[in-house]
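Quick one - inputs below.
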Amino acid sequence: KAGVTQTPRYLIKTRGQQVTLSCSPISGHRSVSWYQQTPGQGLQFLFEYFSETQRNKGNFPGRFSGRQFSNSRSEMNVSTLELGDSALYLCASSLSGQGYTFGSGTRLTIV
Amino acid sequence: QKEVEQDPGPLSVPEGAIVSLNCTYSNSAFQYFMWYRQYSRKGPELLMYTYSSGNKEDGRFTAQVDKSSKYISLFIRDSQPSDSATYLCAMTANSKLTFGKGITLSVRP
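Output:
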């Protein structure tokens, strides 16, 4: 069975631009969560979607947003990029909101 | 105080050693407890998942949860060089995973 697929794997953007990251969950999984991983802060929760509704949100500014489609695929958008947004962005999917399977992530570099 | 505290490491052990990894937490609302393993340039991989206090064993791995002390542990028996990775504890409340900072384990042949 296919795992969680994130695209693209690597991305380089300049300050002020915006970016959209994509996540395809495991088939049948309706919960999709997004996390930011940096060496200093570790893994931090961004938000969770379930059946196209945002169910939970972390402590990130409004520049970070997301959505989920009817097929459970999810996108994350970051506007007005800052140097500090450079990180590995991870998506995880879950059948029941408990055991989460992660993708390999998108490595975003802001220059 | 952070919600989840994990021993910072790094940790280096010889092949065959028993490894003990630990986390403490402060939020009594946490219901599910997990251990993830992360190799370089990969996403975290779920190793162990448990709900109740007590021990859960899976091959060379044992997860231990003590809810009264707010303490969880992961034991790795007969450690192998292939176990070299970063190990993260994680806990959930309301479908939100809160992670420890992770500890990098190196198993020397």
